[in-house]
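ingest -> validate -> predict -> emit
validate: passed (alphabet ok, no gaps, 132 aa)
predict: started
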Amino acid sequence: MDVLLLIGRVLFSLIFLASAVGHFKNAEGMAGYLGSKGIKNAKPLVLLTGLMLAVGALSVLLGVYAQIGVLVLIAFLVPTSFIMHAFWKESDPMAKMNEQIAFFKNMGLIGGGLFLYVLLELHSDLNLFILN
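emit:
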């Protein structure tokens, strides 16, 4: 079972780590995307959310303060879903479909994060450190 927990943590963390790298490598492009959604002075927000993604993902991956890491990721996902992926506001069918997919992907990640948080809360004796 420990191996499955490790695999699950690695897979859960990958999307957030990849997104964090994208935030830092393409901060200008990401800021432009946020600007297209009406967010002003977006570059500092891109860097902050990139940091949230990196810290949360590494925390979950390494099992160091993993519960806090999960909450950080959820704190990123909730506003991102409703602000950046508001598919109900889209009139173009293709844009609506793409935003709907992104929105519900985020809802699934939030659900997975909640499962992980509860698992860690109920079973604090689990050996979830990747470093051991």
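Residues 2-122 form one domain.
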